[in-house]
Amino acid sequence: xxxxxxxxxxxxxxxxxxxxxxxxxxxxxxxxxxxxxxxxxxxxxxxxxxxxxxxxxxxxxxxxxxxxxxxxxxxxxxxxxxxxxxxxxxxxxxxxxxxxxxxxxxxxxxxxxxxxxxxxxxxxxxxxxxxxxxxxxxxxxxxxxxxxxxxxxxxxxxxxxxxxxxxxxxxxxxxxxxxxx
Length: 181
Description:
Blueprint: H1 8-19, H2 25-51, H3 56-62, E1 63-66, E2 69-72, E3 76-78, E4 83-85, E5 97-100, E6 108-110, E7 113-117, E8 124-129, E9 137-139, E10 141-144, H4 145-148, H5 152-179
């Protein structure tokens, strides 16, 4: 769960701005909450793709809103959706497949790993052989998108950018209200 905490200096700045606007602080708080939800949907995908080898579009699809909450939903992703080598099926390697989920740390060799075209969809999937039979293989999966957001690096980056976005939005909203718009 991602929770944004403001320190005392941030709260003092917010109270100073809100105190200059008599009677409209509730209105600004509601507008600020809406702005934060919009900005969270824009901030989370790029921050996640800075830490993980995941496309921003996949993270964007996993984000939904419900009232004043941002909800991340998703199941485990196939490893082929991340950084794999070889990138196409058919190219066999002596030591199998290499893959990386996080950007730092490099690629790890997966023994008996290979790529196939999925049945019906034609999507490329990463698999690992589990036995000697023709169909003895199972998919290689990575963490789900909500699990990725629990990473300390992602959370700290998102909370810092959300704090800055909140302060910027508050200045804009207060300026609009004082100007009579």
